[in-house]
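Our consortium's second objective concerns turning raw sequence data into structural hypotheses that experimental partners can test. To show how far this objective has progressed, the report includes one record in full. It was chosen at random from the queue rather than selected for favorable results. The single chain below, 137 residues long, was entered without modification.
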Amino acid sequence: MISVLVVAHEPLATALIHCTRHVFGRLPSQVAALDVVPDEDPAAALKAARDLAARVNDGSGLVVLTDLFGATPARIAVQLAEPGRVAVFHGANLPLLLKLLNYRRSVPLEDLVDKLQASLEASIGLVTPAMAQAENS
C-alpha cells in the first residue's frame, strides 16, 4: 500500500490527517504528519521527515503532500522526492488527501500520481450561486 506523509506549516499537517477520521471513522494506517514550526532548523526538520518517511513506507511508494511551494515545508518535502518511488505534491488540501487515501491501495504509484494530478483542479474552486442553491436544497 502506498504510504502518505504530509509536511506543512504547524498545525496543518496534523489537522489534515485528523480530518480524515471524520470521513473514515478512524485514522488511516501508513500515514504520518510533520508540522514545521516557525524558526525550526531545516536540517532537523529534514531528518524528521526522512525518519517519518522510512517509518511509514513499506516499499510500495510514498506520496508527500506539502502546503505552500517555496516555503520551508515544501523545500523539505522536495528533498524527499525520488522518481518512481516518492512523489511530492504541493497545495495540500483535504480533497486531495482523501482521494489519495481512497486510491492508494488499488493502483501503483505512477497511476496514483496521474489520478491525483488530474483531480487537482477539481479540489478547489469558486462556489457559484447555482452550486450553493443545490447544496441548500
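The partners drew two points from this record. The chain has a mean pLDDT of 95. DSSP finds six helices and four strands in the chain. Both points have been shared with the crystallography group to help prioritize constructs.
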